[in-house]
Amino acid sequence: MPEPLLYAKAMGVAAITSSVFVFVIIALRKSVSTAGLNAVCVFGLRLGLVTGYAWLGISRSWPPTSGLDRLLMIVVPMTLCVELIAGARLLPTAVSWLLRFGVAITVPPILLQNSVYLSSTDDWTSWQAITVLVIALAMVWGTLSYITHRSGGISIAFAICLAIQCAGATVMMAGYINGGAAAIPLAATLFGVSVAPCLSPRYMRRDHEVRLPNGFLASAIIGIGVVGLFGLLFVGRFFGEISTMPALTILIAPLLCCVSEAPKIRDRKPWIVASLSLILVAIPLMVVLIAANREFDREMLPLLGHEFVKPEGNQSNERS
């Protein structure tokens, strides 16, 4: 059963650990370049995720045996490594994006390893869902990175956090408790790493290069946020009970931050643009949550007196 107090503690531990790490490293340096700050954020993200999941008590085993295990132990570290390399700016931009798109393409087979979805080629509906979700992942990743590079904006990180929390709640209400709980440290860590640079007086005073209108946002935050969101929705879609449309809606909801690029909006005060973006992102997420809650009340709630979800074939191992 879900444990709200434990989730709140894990959220606090992940956010505080990651933000304090980034804040201290920035404060100790005389100056921080964008590449250096991105590297600090990568290590801050890793530290926050490790401590958050350890506090949450989601035990992982090697070799990973479930989609969630592979997400946390293979996909997330792989994405962090790619963002560390790309953020160092040692490679041409085109090569960096080839690495990112390589991650987007390889995530589905990694998460579906040893599952019936890879062994069966007759399930056309599943392959359609995989294709649509991968295309959406690449589109969201590229678009949000472009907006961040063009105008900055910590609101984009907040929008991703909202989507991740919505994904976690939706997956949890679909019966996959551990899959939904995995969203909590991820969202908290992203939040902590995003706000830490803005709170560092030394960083704001000395590094003029990254003073952007809405605050600098490291590319690693976008990368791990979008890939993590995709991974949670993917395991919820194929090893849980959520359908393709809600998963796709949650995944592309952060794209509504593009409203900040509208000619009549982008020249307004930053807090107005950020507030409008977050409100627009929250609307489809609320619709998905309401629909998921109704589905939960209709199908899952009557089972709470006996067992949360009845195991179904190979999927029973994924829910544990």
Automatic annotation (TrEMBL):
Instruction: Spell out the coiled coil positions from the record.
Output: none
Keywords associated with the record? Membrane, Transmembrane, Transmembrane helix
The residues that cross the membrane are: 6-28, 35-58, 70-91, 98-118, 124-144, 156-177, 183-204, 216-236, 242-259, 271-292
**Domain of life, source organism:** Bacteria
Q: Does the keyword Transmembrane apply?
A: yes
Task: Give the protein's recorded name.
Answer: Uncharacterized protein
Q: Which organism is it from?
A: Stieleria varia
